[in-house]
Here is the input.
Amino acid sequence: MKTLNRKLAVLLFTLILAVSSAFPALAAGNTTVAGASFATYTSIPSGFTQMAGTPLCFYDGTPDSVKESVINAFDSLPDNVRTMAAVAGFHYLVTDKAHAANVPNFQNPGTLPAGETMRFSYYYYSDGTVTHTDFAAVIFYDTEGTTPDQTLIHETGHMMDDCMLMYRGALSSTSSEFSALAAQDKNVIGGFDRNSAVNVYTSSEIFAESFRIFMDDPGWLTTNCPEIYKFVTNIIDNLPTTGRANY
Here is the structure.
């Protein structure tokens, strides 16, 4: 019996090591910003450095003015949104387009966008659900006609959408409720500014852009698209901020 127990213990330890290697989780040793605990990521691409206590990762050589703009944009996010980023293990990769190749798995669509939300790896729970352990928004700071702070907020809208999928089982942007609102207010959202005009081609983009407008000019959104304003507010209020942290 003792021999059998030893064999089982060794087998269990081996399985733990195998799972740990297959699914590289976030490192221990978190820091705190405004009540949200952010991990030090273990799989930041080469050339990027994470800003301590935040999920912001800057490519080496990023201008200080860009860093300041991105930091201010992140600091402006509602507390629930920043806590969501910590709980779900999200991070941001800030770079210029010349170094896009340094981001693993980045799919160049021909004309590089201002930003793109990506998923690198997954962690499976015993109840069969799945969440992302390494989820990043790539932000290009040298896109003509947009600014990195605008891009961060727009990509955060995509993160919120995917977070609802991970924790609630469905995207917010493709729900029947929002799909109807998107169809109804597509041209109104697209008329907000130059960036909005090119970000209304799917309900997912309309959701992310609506969040960007929510942050940039909530009065405009309230007046022109009151139902979308209420929808975005409800999502923010109901984001998961506790539970399945990956660290």
The first strand starts at residue 31 and ends at 33. Residues 2-36, 120-133 have pLDDT under 50 and may be disordered.
